[in-house]
């Protein structure tokens, strides 16, 4: 109400007495605007012939309120009405208001279109050259650290300041200065380290939907999925886009690289020069016969890579998956088992670049537009700057990137262990370091598992060292890939000191080039690392834990030559 400067109900505003007062008394426009902002209003819409009231409203707001508010006139005297109204709706839309755009554009022949790519968007993906602490630009992180500290100083918050510096509230200034120096140095160092944090992201890239294929294409499919609609759509789609498609169905009998190589040569015999090989073997997620820790798709893909390398087939290999990667927070990772083929592919790209083409993840629904995008990705792989790690979605094509990751906000509280903590692979080099750290950080009882238990090299000495630090230690012989054995270890933890955290450090290394690595070597690594994690999750899925930590290899992010299985 411009009469009272406060909220007024409809009956009051509609009465003749109200408008008599409105004419005779002062207009309390500013008070009305302030009353609205006090109730959390941040969007003001002026319904009138110009923006006079909008300008007045802005003058009634503080600088901070004006920055957080939208003050929008519907019409402007110097602009066409349709243009002014559309601009007003657009400004409200970008400020969070809900606009029924369907109603706005109804009857105007409007239709949904894809946004154009932005031609001048550039991102740098390489780390800085200097690796010294002083060589990195940590000013932003350092400013944030300093801001939190000086905020406590300005508030004269003695308790917060003492906690930050880890000193007693009664400590004299002469003793605070060294603590202040240590705090400042440690926080700056931590900010620098946080600046080295990276993550995988998916960035939209231009469609190559107009690309055409040529030559002979060999599509290798698993026998268990040979009749799937997705497989049929891929094969027919490649044909529609110009490829001469030859299909090869593989099953468990093809887990021998030499035998599969013979079948490959037979499939392409008498055909024109082979251009590309597209493998859909990853779609088979059933356990591999003889190596249940592996999927049949992973084992067959590994064998296919070796067979192509052994036979010298001059064609680039693309591996297709579906649901193996997630390109955004709203997209569920539906088939994580197939993600192992992505890690395998990154190793193949490093070790066998002459035969490697790339990785492409397919959408759940493969319509004609998605098929066209797939053909565009595959046709572009020989061009300069082509992407080799791609996800095709209904909304477009996304490429995998490694980007800087903003460090999580530190609250200053150090994590403390308590009760019983399980460390798988606890007698190994990594497990031993974790165990020492846990004891120093409050763990009262450690359960260390390894396949050989106390008989493992150095296990007895480690146990003695940890007990000397004040912890109870139990060393159990257990293969974490054996769910029943692992369940027995968990059941043996006493209620006196319940299990509160798990650190999965178990793993086996199998060094060697990809061309000499078979399913058995991969299974030996995967059974401990992956199957162990799956078993822990299954056995502890409903239990509340302070921490569930899994150690992995950077090979899963960017590959690792000579460490294919890991």
Strands of the widest sheet, in order across it, are 3-12-11-10-9-6-4-5
- As for the number of domains, it is 4
Shape, please?
flat
Q: Under the CATH scheme, which class of the largest domain?
A: Alpha Beta
| CATH fold field value of the largest domain | Rossmann fold
Based on CA atoms alone, the radius of gyration comes out at 32 Å
| Helix residue percentage | 25-40%
CATH architecture of the largest domain: 3-Layer(aba) Sandwich
Structural class estimated from helices and strands? alpha/beta
Distance between the termini: 71 Å
Q: In percent terms, what proportion of residues is strand?
A: 15-25%
Average pLDDT over all residues: 86
Outline the fold blueprint.
Blueprint: H1 10-13, H2 16-24, H3 29-38, E1 43-46, H4 52-60, H5 63-68, E2 70-73, H6 81-94, H7 101-105, H8 139-154, H9 158-165, H10 173-194, E3 198-205, E4 216-222, H11 229-240, E5 244-250, H12 257-268, E6 274-279, E7 287-288, E8 291-295, H13 296-311, E9 316-322, H14 339-351, E10 356-362, H15 368-379, E11 389-393, E12 396-404, E13 420-424, H16 429-440, E14 445-450, H17 459-468, E15 472-477, H18 483-491, E16 499-504, H19 519-540, E17 547-550, H20 555-558
Parallel strand pairs: 1-2, 4-5, 4-6, 6-9, 9-10, 10-11, 13-14, 13-16, 14-15, 16-17
Antiparallel strand pairs: 3-12, 7-8, 11-12
Helix pairs in contact: 8-10, 11-15, 12-13, 13-14
């Amino acid at each position: 109400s411009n009469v009272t400067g406060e909220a007024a109900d409809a009956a009051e505003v509609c009465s003749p007495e109200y408008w008599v007062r409105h004419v005779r008394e002062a207009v309390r426009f500013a008070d009305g605007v302030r009353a609205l902002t006090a109730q959390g209003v941040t969007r003001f819409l002026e319904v009138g012939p110009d923006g006079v009231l909008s300008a007045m409203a802005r003058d009634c707001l503080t600088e901070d309120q004006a920055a957080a508010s939208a003050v929008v006139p519907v019409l402007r005297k110097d602009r066409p009405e349709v243009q002014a109204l559309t601009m007003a709706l657009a400004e409200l839309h970008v400020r969070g208001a809900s606009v029924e755009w369907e109603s706005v554009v109804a009857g105007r022949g409007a239709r949904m279109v894809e946004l154009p790519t932005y031609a001048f968007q550039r991102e740098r993906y390489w780390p800085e050259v200097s690796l010294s602490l002083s060589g990195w630009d940590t000013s932003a992180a350092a400013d944030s650290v300093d801001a939190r500290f000086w905020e406590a100083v300005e508030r004269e918050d003695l308790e917060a300041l003492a906690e930050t510096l880890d000193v007693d509230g009664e400590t004299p200034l002469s003793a605070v200065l060294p603590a202040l120096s240590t705090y400042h140095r440690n926080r700056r160092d931590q900010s620098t380290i946080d600046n080295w944090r990276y993550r995988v992201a998916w960035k939209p890239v231009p469609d190559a939907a107009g690309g055409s294929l040529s030559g002979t294409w060999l599509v290798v499919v698993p026998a268990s999925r040979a009749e799937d609609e997705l497989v049929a759509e891929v094969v027919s789609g490649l044909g529609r886009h110009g490829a001469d498609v030859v299909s090869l169905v593989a099953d468990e009998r093809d887990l021998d690289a030499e035998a599969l190589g013979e079948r490959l040569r037979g499939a392409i015999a008498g055909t024109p020069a082979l251009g590309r090989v597209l493998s859909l073997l990853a779609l088979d997620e059933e356990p591999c016969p003889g190596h249940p820790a592996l999927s049949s798709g992973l084992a067959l893909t590994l064998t296919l890579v070796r067979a192509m390398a052994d036979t010298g087939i001059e064609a680039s290999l693309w591996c297709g998956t579906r649901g193996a990667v997630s390109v955004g927070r709203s997209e569920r990772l539906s088939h994580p088992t197939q993600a192992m083929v992505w890690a395998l592919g990154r190793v193949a790209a490093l070790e066998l670049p002459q035969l490697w083409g790339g990785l492409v993840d397919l959408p759940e629904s493969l319509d004609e537009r998605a098929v066209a995008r797939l053909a565009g990705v595959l046709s572009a792989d020989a061009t300069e700057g082509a992407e080799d790690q791609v996800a095709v979605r209904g909304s477009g094509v996304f490429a995998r990137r490694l980007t800087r990751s903003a460090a999580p906000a530190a609250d200053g509280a150090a994590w403390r262990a308590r009760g019983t903590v399980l460390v798988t692979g606890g007698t190994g080099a990594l497990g031993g370091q974790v165990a020492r750290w846990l004891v120093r950080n409050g763990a009262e009882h450690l359960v260390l598992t390894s396949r050989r238990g106390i008989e493992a090299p150095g296990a007895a000495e480690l146990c003695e060292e940890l007990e000397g630090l004040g912890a109870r230690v139990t060393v159990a012989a257990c293969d974490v890939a054996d769910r029943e054995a692992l369940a027995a270890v968990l059941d043996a933890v006493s209620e006196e000191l319940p299990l509160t955290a798990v650190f999965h450090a178990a793993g086996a290394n199998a060094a060697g080039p990809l061309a000499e690595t078979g399913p058995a070597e991969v299974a030996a690594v995967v059974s401990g690392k992956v199957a162990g994690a799956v078993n822990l999750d299954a056995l502890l899925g409903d239990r509340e834990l302070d921490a569930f930590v899994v150690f992995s290899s950077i090979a899963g992010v960017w590959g690792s030559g000579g460490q294919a299985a890991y």
